[in-house]
Amino acid sequence: MGVRPPADDSDEPDVIEFGIAALDARLSEIAIEYPADARTVRERAGHVEVPYDATGHSVTVADALDEADVREFENEQELLNALHPVFERKREATGTSLLSQLRSLVPF
Protein backbone atom coordinates (compact mmCIF):
# COMPACT_ATOMS: atom_id res chain seq x y z
CA MET A 1 0.00 0.00 0.00
CA GLY A 2 1.07 3.59 -0.39
CA VAL A 3 -0.16 7.03 0.57
CA ARG A 4 0.78 10.40 -0.85
CA PRO A 5 2.29 12.67 1.82
CA PRO A 6 1.11 16.29 2.21
CA ALA A 7 2.34 18.59 -0.53
CA ASP A 8 5.34 20.77 0.36
CA ASP A 9 8.69 21.80 -1.07
CA SER A 10 10.81 19.19 0.69
CA ASP A 11 12.84 16.48 -0.99
CA GLU A 12 10.71 13.74 0.57
CA PRO A 13 9.55 10.84 -1.65
CA ASP A 14 6.30 11.22 -3.57
CA VAL A 15 4.78 8.10 -2.02
CA ILE A 16 5.18 6.54 1.40
CA GLU A 17 5.30 2.76 1.08
CA PHE A 18 4.02 0.52 3.83
CA GLY A 19 2.83 -3.04 4.29
CA ILE A 20 3.39 -5.46 1.45
CA ALA A 21 4.66 -2.75 -0.93
CA ALA A 22 7.37 -1.79 1.57
CA LEU A 23 8.22 -5.44 2.24
CA ASP A 24 8.47 -6.16 -1.49
CA ALA A 25 10.89 -3.25 -1.94
CA ARG A 26 13.05 -4.42 0.97
CA LEU A 27 13.08 -8.06 -0.14
CA SER A 28 14.46 -7.06 -3.53
CA GLU A 29 17.68 -6.07 -1.72
CA ILE A 30 18.02 -9.42 0.12
CA ALA A 31 19.13 -12.72 -1.41
CA ILE A 32 16.62 -15.42 -0.48
CA GLU A 33 16.54 -18.64 -2.48
CA TYR A 34 13.09 -20.17 -2.91
CA PRO A 35 11.57 -22.49 -1.94
CA ALA A 36 12.37 -21.30 1.58
CA ASP A 37 11.03 -21.98 5.04
CA ALA A 38 10.29 -19.41 7.74
CA ARG A 39 13.63 -20.11 9.46
CA THR A 40 15.58 -19.28 6.30
CA VAL A 41 13.61 -16.09 5.70
CA ARG A 42 14.12 -15.11 9.36
CA GLU A 43 17.89 -15.67 9.07
CA ARG A 44 18.16 -13.54 5.92
CA ALA A 45 15.55 -10.84 6.54
CA GLY A 46 14.33 -11.14 10.13
CA HIS A 47 16.06 -7.93 11.20
CA VAL A 48 14.35 -5.82 8.51
CA GLU A 49 11.84 -3.26 9.83
CA VAL A 50 8.75 -2.87 7.65
CA PRO A 51 6.27 -0.02 8.20
CA TYR A 52 2.69 -1.29 8.26
CA ASP A 53 0.88 2.05 8.17
CA ALA A 54 1.41 5.54 6.75
CA THR A 55 2.38 6.98 10.14
CA GLY A 56 5.50 4.82 10.35
CA HIS A 57 4.55 2.10 12.82
CA SER A 58 6.68 -0.90 11.92
CA VAL A 59 7.30 -4.56 12.63
CA THR A 60 10.30 -6.75 11.89
CA VAL A 61 10.02 -9.53 9.35
CA ALA A 62 10.84 -11.99 12.17
CA ASP A 63 7.87 -10.79 14.25
CA ALA A 64 5.57 -10.88 11.21
CA LEU A 65 6.68 -14.45 10.45
CA ASP A 66 5.81 -15.44 14.03
CA GLU A 67 2.22 -14.31 13.41
CA ALA A 68 1.89 -15.88 9.94
CA ASP A 69 0.05 -19.16 9.40
CA VAL A 70 2.32 -20.39 6.58
CA ARG A 71 5.85 -21.72 7.20
CA GLU A 72 6.94 -22.77 3.68
CA PHE A 73 7.19 -20.42 0.70
CA GLU A 74 7.63 -21.63 -2.88
CA ASN A 75 8.44 -18.11 -4.10
CA GLU A 76 8.51 -14.49 -2.97
CA GLN A 77 4.86 -13.98 -3.90
CA GLU A 78 3.81 -16.75 -1.49
CA LEU A 79 5.82 -15.04 1.26
CA LEU A 80 4.12 -11.72 0.52
CA ASN A 81 0.70 -13.39 0.47
CA ALA A 82 1.37 -15.10 3.81
CA LEU A 83 2.48 -11.88 5.52
CA HIS A 84 -0.23 -9.65 4.05
CA PRO A 85 -2.86 -10.56 6.70
CA VAL A 86 -0.33 -9.84 9.46
CA PHE A 87 0.30 -6.31 8.17
CA GLU A 88 -3.43 -5.71 7.68
CA ARG A 89 -4.26 -6.80 11.26
CA LYS A 90 -1.56 -4.52 12.65
CA ARG A 91 -2.67 -1.59 10.49
CA GLU A 92 -6.31 -2.01 11.50
CA ALA A 93 -5.43 -2.34 15.19
CA THR A 94 -3.38 0.85 15.08
CA GLY A 95 -6.01 2.72 13.08
CA THR A 96 -8.67 2.14 15.72
CA SER A 97 -6.58 3.38 18.65
CA LEU A 98 -7.75 6.49 20.47
CA LEU A 99 -4.57 8.37 19.57
CA SER A 100 -5.01 7.57 15.87
CA GLN A 101 -8.60 8.76 15.95
CA LEU A 102 -7.57 12.03 17.60
CA ARG A 103 -4.79 12.54 15.06
CA SER A 104 -7.27 12.16 12.22
CA LEU A 105 -9.26 15.10 13.62
CA VAL A 106 -6.30 17.50 13.65
CA PRO A 107 -5.30 18.92 10.25
CA PHE A 108 -1.49 18.91 10.04
Automatic annotation (TrEMBL):
Pfam families attached here? DUF5789
What is the name attached to this protein's record? Uncharacterized protein
The record, for InterPro entries, names: DUF5789
Q: From which organism does this entry originate?
A: Haloarcula rubra
